[in-house]
Amino acid sequence: MFISGESLTLPNLQLAGRVLNTPDPLTYPFSESTMLGQMRDIGEETIRRIDWTELTPIVLLLRVFNAALGVRVLFFAMIGLWLTAFLNRFAGIVILKQEFSKPEHWEMIRLNVPLDVLNPALVNAILSIQQNPTLLFWWLPCIVLIWIFCGGMICRMVAVRFTIDESESTINLFRFFRKRGISFVSSLIILVLGILCCFLPVKIAGWLLAVPGLKYVVAVLLPIPLVFAFFTVILTLGLAIGFMMLFAAVSVDGSDGFDAISRMFSYIFQRPLHYLLYWACCGILGWFGVALLQVLTRSTVKLYWSSATGPDLFLETFWLTLVWSIPVAYVFAWFWTSSVAIYLLLRRSVDATPLNEVYRVSPPKVRTLPTIKQDERGAPEMAKEKE
User: Fold this and answer.
1) pTM assigned to the model
2) For residue 112, which phi and psi values (nearest 5 degrees)?
3) Res 342: pLDDT
4) DSSP three-state, residue 382
């Protein structure tokens, strides 16, 4: 899109100011001479490119669909999905059904929303934990670690793509995770410990109320456990609706655990309506993406079944299940990709941080020994480094 410099008169300078990355046109005092002077810097008083992300930042959400379909993004989502499925097999929780092998199962493949696949798994997980509480000590930590790695990798790839429009190399991904991977873990641990510390006084007050001689004292001091109960609810609510912002904060800004928690609560509670609106938009786009992938995978599997006449084989079932799991893997890829996009928009709205700022891991410096040479008298000396 080209806009002639002659058409940018004083009424149109606000649009030009936004395009040229000058201060906010609603508050900055513009003058026609200043704007035309800045326009000459890009040549012939012509704006050659409009950054629609700066004009309307919400269009960043439109990139979620393509980013979630990236090969490496889907690869890490598939790894997380299958590791979760294998781990759930020991816990009796089913996410993927593996009986898609013959035409009599065609009716099982239908166009549905992602929640039809994920909701039963979530219900089964809750019921399994209630029946066997020991799952909390080995199954839940393993699931968290799986998605700390896979989700963190996806968030980092998408963060670099959305900010500076580059593809992070695999070496840099592992270098980033080696340097900042502990922040993913520490942010969750700190938040969970905070919830437990706030809940502990509430639980103690409940125990003391059962003591006949202390219940009146506890009743007088009841505002104290009520305050701790309030903070417990706030922290739990933040963890439930915003834990994905912790991953985005570490991936985008390289935050430590405390800074990631601070950013999460600051962005969500200062812009709650923005947060809900962004997730609603991403949800609509995600539904269309999953619907499209389900149509493609359904057609692919049906086409194979129409020509397959041999007996059931283990590898046949494996590959068919792998193909059918692509839409489910896309749900996870969409989730982490949307988290990064929403984080960038909230960061821009609250902190006025440009969308193109991202934490970069500097490559390790290679230190070599200095060069030794001989002077005029034959004595060794250190050679001077060239500037």
Assistant:
1) 0.75
2) -135, 175
3) 95
4) strand
